[in-house]
Structure prediction request, 373 residues.
Amino acid sequence: MLIGVPKEIKDNENRVGLAPSSVRELAHHGHDILVEKNAGAGIGVTDEEYQAVGASVAGAAAEVFERAEMIIKVKEPQAAERAMLRPGQVLFTYLHLAPDPDQTKDLVDSGAVCIAYETVTSPHGGLPLLAPMSEVAGRMAVQAGAYCLEKPHGGLGMLLGGVPGVDPAKVVVLGAGVVGTHATHIAVGMGADVSVLDRNLDVLKAHWRQFGRSTDTVFSTRDAVERHVLMADLVIGGVLIPGAAAPKLVTADMVRKMKPGAVVVDVAIDQGGCFETSKPTTHAHPTYVVDDVVHYCVANMPGGVPRTSTFALNNATLPHVVTLADKGYKRALLEDVHLLQGLNVHKGHVTYKPVADDLGYEFRDPVESLHDD
Prediction:
């Protein structure tokens, strides 16, 4: 199979779909890899390094999209990239379709086979291709929040961990999943006063076992969310409903009542955000202020540390890329129910129910759609 790796074009996105070590593995399996010129520049990898492990280098994205049978990316395809997709071509990347009707329409119209990293499941539960970026984003959320709490950046002027004799910042983490756990790890390490809210008692118990009395675990209700958010100096939103739009846990009214100079970091922004006042931002312009509350809503947070993120992502995605290339997408999907969960769009049909429900498309069963292929 000819596998294409275009250079990412989203604002300040420097990750790359395949690292050289992944290219070498695919070449060993007998596949051809076409990498766009300078695709790896953002992680410090040269075209010569890709060529040394068996890749060819294309001068432009158009050549990659025109020739490749399968496209491997990181972020959702931008409008210019979606226009280059063709019927039957496989796209394997993050999609986050539920809050993005324009992208969904373009992918449906393209006739391509679109498999989303973020909805692939594992035999042990969880979302293994989303997890590594959630780990990075959770850790970065605390760094970003601490930065924004500094007075020159619009915040209260607080040091996250305080100093002897001065209280630390109160950090509220919404969701005790992968994002929340890694955010808690960093916030506790920096000495903050941390409260974690979740509706799953088993998750809260696991959190308690991991962190003990260094955090306050809270069962999430509307009352609990409001009470803790209004006391918070920093709120990190890490809630997730796989493939669907994130629930708006923090209302605009709650934000209005927060402390002036408080900070919110919405890690759920890829799925629409869990604050009513959230809107996507970029690494170039990461924050804005609503009712004196600083909002950090960068939609590709792990892109800020692209080298770490690329290798972490490749560790998770490579086995699936190899399977899709070795078997072909149809056989690979039909033989692996967990990879099948990643199929969001198939040749003009929406094949992932939460996306269909959120955006008003008719849902097509993925197995039926593949059998009719």
Summary: The radius of gyration is 21 Å.
